[in-house]
């Protein structure tokens, strides 16, 4: 299978491309050129690697989760992206794009954020590299995630609550795009996932693909062979494409993307974009999309704010269509069971996003049998999710939980 | 392709205005605001006030190119249950009322979802003149270009101050009707100051095409329209007209502002010499 996608215009098969206002096309061309020249420049890539190592705690460990494996009935390896600086894989992308912003000579960065994780990662990278930082965040989310708003402010970022539309992540992206079209000569839009118009899906993939490159080498060292399967949660899809990229040419390694099934796929209250199977155009690319029969975007639902997005990166749509990867939903309830299981068996509290991947791995373990080795991207840590978990499990006195 | 065909319906209407020694006036309002019938009445007021070309907006959930005024109107229309098929009904009602060409301005996904061929057929069937597509560049537009050509619909693509000369050339080559110059870097909305980006963009665009060039720039009054009319073929007004509806001035407010703008585009007869 080819690993040279996308084409010159950003297409992965029929997916991807550029559905953007003309005003942004020339800036996207400039960005493409700057990114490609940076990635071919050993000074840039060397600096990126050094900063990841010295400042972000990368490469992350590959952990042989023996107690979880006993429960799963197959060998589970966890790629510990939760141990990175800022607590998730997202720092790789934020640092890469921030460094590229410096190289392009732009002084200002804007970003969107849902729960606040990408906003915090961006604010952190901008503080480190001395860039002005503005983060757009849906008003609903600024209220739900006030601690992350405080973090971003402490790091020197300005947080702008978005009051248009549904006042959540997709509207924060809309508002960031509106800022960008008016400010693009001195501003970089640091998109938080491997979605959007070309070159973002490929560029973000390349900044986060260290996840899979490292895990592949670590697996060979630990096992003497590759794992049988690689599993990651998919919202926009950056942690998953970061894990998958290295393994796409390894056709014996099965790839599984775990989508947020919310209340259950059949209820309609979910964010399982690929499983739902409708193709459309949103935020600059053709991909799978949650939409109504008129093509209006439908609001998604997931207990995990980081997966709660009605679109998905175009490369995932292509991997699904070509059947190189398999995508399946996991419900809120199953994800939360795995959240608790990982805490109790391994002493690791995962992000709820990552708990979806663990829940998916438990199902896949049953299918592949006891001889299988399954690599799971533990994309982030769960400190940010303790409010949600406390409510779900009734961990705080006086609250009625589910157990 | 001959110039006659490439002018399409909208370009022919603009050239007719130019032949009178003035710029054309293109007026925008979203369909379905403040209601289905109210939206049609407001669009008829654009005709009565003197627009040469009509632009009807298709309300969309994620209008990334639009500022607050058009966002609010689109949100209200959608919240009121307005559907894509209602845009076709709106076009049908307007084309029954007037011969002024009717373009629909739409983000791409609703058309892709409707089915590009099916849309082109149904839209031509209700007398629509063509589409303005703010988030579709010709490189991604092969299906639309083929469907528009088959149904003789205008294809209005956008150029911007950031567009390279090469991009302007390839974009105008794909247009029929006119070329839409977004002469500010930013979203739609009323602006008090004239942009110094407009004149150079119009000049660069005209260097590549015989098609008329329309400029959208946040014009809200006759003086601004007159200033633009001095160097462009058509003046496009949107947000200021939408604001009439948002402020409750109704079709009468739309008509009164349109009449004033129509006077503005007639104010500079000397500029026509350069056309």
TrEMBL record, chain A:
Domain Tryptophan synthase beta chain-like PALP residues, every copy: 62-380
Residue ranges crossing the lipid bilayer per the database entry: none
Reaction(s) the record says it catalyses: (1S,2R)-1-C-(indol-3-yl)glycerol 3-phosphate + L-serine = D-glyceraldehyde 3-phosphate + L-tryptophan + H2O
GO molecular function: tryptophan synthase activity
E.C. number: 4.2.1.20
Pathway: Amino-acid biosynthesis; L-tryptophan biosynthesis; L-tryptophan from chorismate: step 5/5
UniProt keyword Lyase, yes or no: yes
InterPro entries: Trp_synth_beta, Trp_synth_beta/beta-like, TrpB-like_PALP, TrpB-like_PALP_sf
Enzyme class: lyase
Cofactor (UniProt): pyridoxal 5'-phosphate
Ranges in a coiled coil: none
Positions of modified residues (N6-(pyridoxal phosphate)lysine): 90
UniProt entry keywords in alphabetical sequence: Amino-acid biosynthesis, Aromatic amino acid biosynthesis, Lyase, Pyridoxal phosphate, Tryptophan biosynthesis
Keyword Lyase set for record: yes
Gene Ontology CC entries for this record: cytoplasm
Quaternary structure and interacting proteins, as annotated: Tetramer of two alpha and two beta chains.
Similarity remark: Belongs to the TrpB family.
Function (record text): The beta subunit is responsible for the synthesis of L-tryptophan from indole and L-serine.
Protein name: Tryptophan synthase beta chain
Annotated gene: trpB
From TrEMBL, chain B:
Family stated for the protein in its record: Belongs to the TrpA family.
Protein name: Tryptophan synthase alpha chain
EC number in record: 4.2.1.20
Function noted in UniProt: The alpha subunit is responsible for the aldol cleavage of indoleglycerol phosphate to indole and glyceraldehyde 3-phosphate.
Enzyme class (EC, first level): lyase
Entries under CDD domains matching the protein: Tryptophan_synthase_alpha (cd04724)
Gene Ontology MF: a single term: tryptophan synthase activity
Natural source organism: Kribbella antibiotica
UniProt KW Amino-acid biosynthesis keyword: yes
Keyword hit for DNA-binding: no
Quaternary structure and partners: Tetramer of two alpha and two beta chains.
Active site: 55, 66
Record field: catalytic activity: (1S,2R)-1-C-(indol-3-yl)glycerol 3-phosphate + L-serine = D-glyceraldehyde 3-phosphate + L-tryptophan + H2O
GO CC annotation, single: cytosol
